[in-house]
Amino acid sequence: MTMSELYRGAWVVACREVLGFIRNRARVLASLTFPLLFLAIFGAGFSNVVGVMARGVNLVTFMYPGIIAMAVLTSALSAGMSVVSDRESGFLREIMVAPVNRAGIVLGKAAGAAGVALLQALMLLTIAPFLVRSLDVGVVVKLVPIVTILALGLAGLGILIGAFITSQQGYQTLLQLLVFPMVFLAGVFFPVERAPLWMAILSKVNPVTYGVDAIRQTFLGSGPAGAGLGVTVLGHTMTLAEEVVMVGALGIVLLTGAMWAFGRQE
Amino acid sequence: MPDMEMIDAQYLGRRFGRTEAVREVSIRVAEGEIYGFLGPNGAGKTTTINMLCTLLRPTSGRASVNGFDVARQRSDVRRSIGLVFQQSTLDDSLSALQNLRFHALAYGVSADIRERRIRDLLVLVELWERRSGSVRSFSGGMRRRLEIARGLLHRPRVLFLDEPTLGLDPQTRRRIWEYLIELRARERLTIFLTTHYMDEAEQCDRIAIIDHGGIVALDTPNGLKGAMGGDLITITTPDSHSAANEVRQRYGVTPVVADGTVRFPVPAGEEFLPDFVRSFSLPLEAISVRRPTLDDVFLRLTGRAIRDGNDGSGLGVGGAEGDKRGAEVR
């Protein structure tokens, strides 16, 4: 296996993923509606209860970056779904017998899902000025690598699961079981630091929390005190850079696991 | 390279845990040959093909395709082969053209020849007019033709076809065979196929019959039928068992009893018949004489009719009807 087989495999697989997303108008629409629905319902429901969290940061503003992270998570995990549905339709065999590297296939699936996740994040960022606050171009530029790193890692998790689950139904069920705690215990809807102890502990074990906080810190700027920024682990408040490195490291582990799981399949 | 071995497998074997799915299979297929691989389901056909296609690692023995080792030079083997699987492996959400383009990219077919090659192949399989149509709307025959076109896109030296015409109507089957024979002539393509259709097996240069993981016969279709010993007599009597006994004692052959009939081979059927009818002690309800078919060869060698070992899947059952028809076409 040469390097060109790695790139070629990753490239064709990723292209197909992204094209598949763009062509599927219903999926594009749903991917936007769903996060916004959450925003509307939770925002409207709790805004009056919670009030302003800090100067210039109300609940909807606080939630918005969390919602972006949620959209990224859902899109990224769909990489696993794509593996499962390719296997069911038989197309996976066409990919597996091509003279391309298996690791390249995994990278392509992950990159494709990350591309889709990034597209969604950008769509949500585009409408952010109309809903919450105006954004600097610089903020968007900074968010691109953060979202990409988070999405690649989560796609790795999806593919890892997809390598073992054979039916779409099974994958969906498992995904529900996984996504809900991951989203609700990631500080998407409320600050982790203000949650009860048991919940705070679970949240800090959840790696998505750091991705959410990294996106939020970037989105809100360093932010006024009390805006619910930062995650404190064992007395140490994680910096943005530390969070990104952590999410990235975990992503590498997950992607490596996915490559291993894919490589051992015959 | 005259008479180069396109496929060369020696003592190829594969275990799954304790089960020995394929054992000591040796296959040599020459360039330009059409090689048929017959066997009941579960006999090891797919396992063997998967090993030759690098999808499954052999646990013993070795094999090479186009001179490349299937375990160590997998990419080279993959570039040398085209594959058409029993189940469709097309992307339903893409058009015919997009499916072929994906394949061309995955196999590194260079851009300058890609579009022309795609056009040529789509014209060959008569899908050029439908090139932009979604594959989802394609019939079974169209899908199969598209898969054959796709399998040929990167100019493979060997085309592997697993049940290429299963479930297709007779006209489509005939057309597909016309393409295959044309391709063999035009590109010296080597074709390795499995089939349940006996009329398809007849088109092969050589046939290997595999059962219980090992090859039990290998010859040309005529050679295999010749080995049956001339003509086949089938008689129907009220008591198949006694009839079989009498045949065994008087003619020294081992008859096959199946479906209320007794079948046995004789060197020259037409001359044998008058004397047999006069002297047979049991009443005869029906009698026929015919040349043996590959079905008979298969039954003799594996103890099963070719469809017996089938898993009874929807497609398989549908194909069985066509198969019986096919067996009678000689």
Question: Briefly, what is this?
Answer:
The complex is a heterodimer of chains A (266) and B (330). In chain A, 76% of the residues lie in helices and 3% in strands.
Kindly estimate the percentage of residues of chain A that lie in beta strands according to DSSP: under 5%
Backbone structural class of chain B: alpha/beta
Side-by-side strand order of the widest sheet of chain A: 1-2
Low-confidence runs of at least 5 consecutive residues of chain A: none
Order of helices and strands of chain A: HHEEHHHHHHHEEH
Sheet with the most strands, sense and barrel status of chain B: 6 strands, mixed
The name of the CATH architecture of the largest domain in chain B is: 3-Layer(aba) Sandwich
CATH superfamily of the largest domain in chain B: P-loop containing nucleotide triphosphate hydrolases
Q: Could you tell me the radius of gyration of chain A in angstroms? A: 19 Å
Strand order of the largest sheet of chain B: 6-7-8-3-9-10
Rg of chain B from C-alpha positions?
22 Å
On the 0-100 scale, what is the average pLDDT of chain A?
Answer: 85
CATH top level of the largest domain in chain B? Alpha Beta
Number of domains of chain A: 1
Mean pLDDT level of chain B:
83
How many individual β-strands of chain B?
Answer: 14
Structural class of chain A: mainly alpha
The CATH topology of the largest domain in chain B is Rossmann fold
Largest sheet of chain A: 2 strands, antiparallel
Query: How many DSSP H or I helices of chain A?
Result: 10
